[in-house]
Amino acid sequence: MTINTLLVDFACASILILIGMFLRSKITLFQRSFIPASLLAGFLGLLLGPEFLNVLPFSGEIGSYAGVITIFVFAAIGINGFKFSRRNMKQDLNRMGAYAVYKVLIITLQLSVPIAFSILVISRIVPEINYGFGLLIASGFYGGHGTAAAVGDTFENLGWENATDLAMTAATAGILVGIFGGLIFIKWATKKGYTHYVKDFSEISSDFRTGLINKDKRVSMGTETVSPVAIDPLVFHVALLVVPAGLGYLLNSYISETWGLEFPTFTVAFIIALLMYLLLGRGEKGVYKYVDSKVVDRLGSAATDYLVFFGVASIQLPVVAQYWLPLTLLVLSGIVVVVGALVLIGPGMTYESWFERSIFVYGYSTGVFAVGLTLLRIVDPKNKSKTLTDTAIVGPLNTPIELFAWSAGPFMLLLGQHWTFVGIFTIASVACFVVARMFKWWYWKIPLDQRPPVPLDDDEK
């Protein structure tokens, strides 16, 4: 990839995003579905890109952009700081604790239920299917295309020739389930009154429907905190985000090469950005008084639009016709897990802003972070539910689970230890429920339409 191909890729993306905005502002169907312009643009990119019509000059690197942009998004969250209000500290800790258990439970269920279903049911219907087949759902749905490729390659090294194609197909199915299923559930939740930051289409303003704000309702994107004579204010804020994003990548690469540990790069960048926030200081003598959080938010939001576009436009749709039956059954088992996690476990383990936080986890656990982010932006455009902030903080808890599953899973499943593998994650799933009940992170008795939003911080009121 050269700087010129990068320029062309983002130029094509920008053209399609503008077209997506035009379609959103004019077509009622898209407005009623709350579909963001970036998502519409992503589908246009998929249609016009190399996977279908191939009329746009995209490079072969568009599939790698989403992961990099995600780092930038979380750097924006970190640089704006993280704080507990003393009044709500206990509430904050309970919220994050319950959310952490919920996220762990999602992956342990995907690593137990579909695999057990594959062993007990699918392998009897299609005897040539091996016991590793069920792992394709977790690697594709929760892990996404990158993890699916890695797990498929491990399986192929163990002698399963078609594993990578099947894993990539499962990952693609997960993305489609996340996008279209998520939109269906958002429509359901708005009608039921479960959403706090976006209401039913018939009750919202034309500004929100079309995405075009009338002159009398427009607000400033931010203020100049440094003099353009010294440095452009936008460059100042961009630099504050690029530094932790780049350092996060370098530090994570060093950790991986030195100790063989794999952490989410966006979490490392978030921690570095948070440290910068603490070092900059918020007092009168601190540098942070020159940081405009509204500008930072806008930069993070702008990156998110491009993240959504590239995440969708780079979808690959491998067709593995000879495995359509077992693959369909496996995907259905995965759908049962993620839907059950959304409509049953989500409200059970989430009290405040339960739907906003649960729909993000639903999207996040069906293959691409961009899908979860897209769904969250529809129902919580300003991250008032603190879902992204909490995700960055509790994200590392899933890393040991993923490392074990993706590295040891193929060996255990193909070499006769399949029930041991299933048993480990079944016990972990049960443990999540026990922890939730022990700490009283179980809220099923409270009606869904009576759940409050996440409390605002004092400076957000």
TrEMBL record:
It holds the Pfam family Glt_symporter. Keywords: Membrane, Transmembrane, Transmembrane helix. The keyword Transmembrane applies. It comes from the Bacteria. The chain crosses the membrane at residues 6-23, 35-56, 62-79, 100-126, 166-186, 234-251, 263-281, 302-321, 327-347, 359-379, 419-439. InterPro entries: GltS (IPR004445). PANTHER family: SLR0625 PROTEIN, SODIUM_GLUTAMATE SYMPORTER. This is Sodium/glutamate symporter. It comes from Corticicoccus populi. The lineage of its organism: Bacteria, Bacillati, Bacillota, Bacilli, Bacillales.
